[in-house]
């Protein structure tokens, strides 16, 4: 029996690989593949509990397959999180990404996924901004100041080098100030202003990205300035009226969104207040404009905010993680990174 082993990448290895590639380009191509029907996205495995501090904790297993002419990629992300972790001085989420051998089904790569998952999410935001953001903008608001916020700033400087103004709000002013100090050290070209008011932060720029742990909507439509693009990355920051009054609403996979009422967009779809494209008239409710992948393929219009606001609410597709971790794998093999772990 031949010896079996796999390649393991720690966070340092993953970061080195990311430095030599363009995560936004990778995610953009996967979105095109998904819209073209070249992916498989099974229902995710989800387990939640309350920890000893009565804080929401969960484990999510996300499998996916990507089918391209050069071959298929199969993989999974296992990502766990607890909302009380930041108070412990820990990142809220951490996990592992896997790539499987398409012939033997053996795991051929495992990588630390906490930051890679955040990069995947930030890359989706940057891709949506390129396709749907304001025609002109010079600043971005981050509501939330954790790992996701840092990943967004890392990619912002690469995807939009002419943007230099950042407004940050967090329920913990100390955490917001810490992000400002981190940004000054890592991205000195960005000028960060910490706002103690969520309302003032939302109104301060024409690009607003929510990266919080809130499960209760709290941002009303009257906080939002005309011409604003909203990236609703987290669960439930924007109220129902923000969706109802938007110039356009986009998601990533409408099946996944509709199946999950934990996110406000999923709940609104389940209640019939948001309906699929073409269903308005047949059913009451405001129609979703489409998915970002469909925009990238030219199948649905790309509406940029003008007199109102445009909202993008990604569920978080496993296939983006699979596409990105496979790109990292290829880069690691190219430059000889990682450790070989012998299984037997």
Structural class: alpha/beta
Can you tell me the residue ranges where pLDDT is under 50 for at least 5 consecutive residues?
none
How large a portion of the residues is in β-strands, by DSSP E?
A: 25-35%
Query: Roughly how many Å apart are the termini?
Result: 10 Å
Give the integer mean of the pLDDT values.
94
Helix content: 25-40%
Give the beta-strand count.
18
SSE string: EHHEEEEEEHEHEHEHEEHEHHEEEHEHE
Structural description of this entry:
This protein has 344 residues and is α/β, with parallel strands linked by helices. The protein has helices at residues 11-19, 23-35, 114-132, 147-159, 173-186, 198-204, 240-244, 254-259, 264-270, 292-296, 318-335; strands at residues 5-9, 39-40, 45-50, 56-68, 71-82, 93-100, 107-112, 139-143, 165-169, 191-194, 207-210, 228-232, 248-251, 274-275, 286-287, 290-291, 309-312, 339-342. Strands 1, 2, 3, 4, 5, 6, 7 and 18 form an eight-stranded mixed β-sheet that branches. Strands 10-9-8-11-12-17-13-16 form an eight-stranded parallel β-sheet, sandwiched between helices. A two-stranded parallel sheet has the order 14-15. α1 (11-19) crosses α11, α2 crosses α3 and α2 packs across α11 (318-335). The longest helix has 19 residues, at 114-132.
């Amino acid at each position: 029996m031949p010896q079996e082993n796999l390649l393991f990448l720690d966070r340092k290895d993953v970061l080195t690989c990311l430095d030599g590639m363009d995560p936004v380009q990778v995610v953009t191509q996967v979105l095109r593949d998904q819209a073209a029907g070249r992916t498989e996205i099974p229902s995710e495995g989800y387990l939640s509990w309350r920890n000893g501090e009565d804080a929401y904790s969960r484990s999510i297993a996300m499998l996916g397959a990507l089918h391209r002419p050069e071959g298929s990629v199969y993989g999974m992300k296992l990502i766990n999180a607890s909302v009380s972790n930041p108070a412990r001085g820990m990142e809220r989420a951490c996990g592992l990404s896997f790539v499987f051998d398409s012939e033997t089904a053996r795991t051929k790569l495992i990588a630390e996924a906490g930051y890679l998952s955040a990069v995947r999410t930030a890359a989706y935001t940057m891709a949506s901004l390129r396709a749907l953001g304001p025609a002109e903008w010079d600043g971005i608001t981050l509501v939330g100041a954790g790992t996701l916020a840092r990943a967004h700033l890392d990619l912002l400087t690469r995807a939009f080098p002419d943007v230099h103004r950042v407004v940050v709000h967090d329920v913990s002013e100390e955490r917001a100030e810490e992000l400002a100090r981190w940004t000054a050290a890592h991205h000195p070209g960005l000028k960060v202003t910490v706002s103690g008011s969520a309302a003032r932060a939302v109104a301060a720029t024409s690009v607003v990205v929510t990266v919080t742990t809130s499960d209760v909507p709290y941002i009303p439509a009257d906080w939002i300035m005309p011409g604003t693009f909203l990236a609703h990355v987290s669960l439930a920051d924007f109220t129902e009226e923000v969706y109802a009054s938007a110039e356009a609403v986009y998601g990533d996979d409408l099946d996944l969104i509709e199946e999950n009422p934990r996110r406000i967009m999923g709940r609104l779809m389940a209640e019939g207040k948001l309906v699929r494209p073409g269903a308005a008239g047949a059913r009451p409710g405001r129609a979703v404009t489409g998915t970002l992948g469909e925009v990238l393929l030219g199948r649905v219009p790309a509406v940029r905010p003008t007199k109102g606001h445009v909202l993008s609410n990604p569920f978080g597709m496993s296939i983006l993680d699979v596409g990105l971790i496979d790109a990292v794998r290829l880069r690691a093999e190219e430059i000889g990174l990682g450790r070989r772990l012998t299984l037997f």
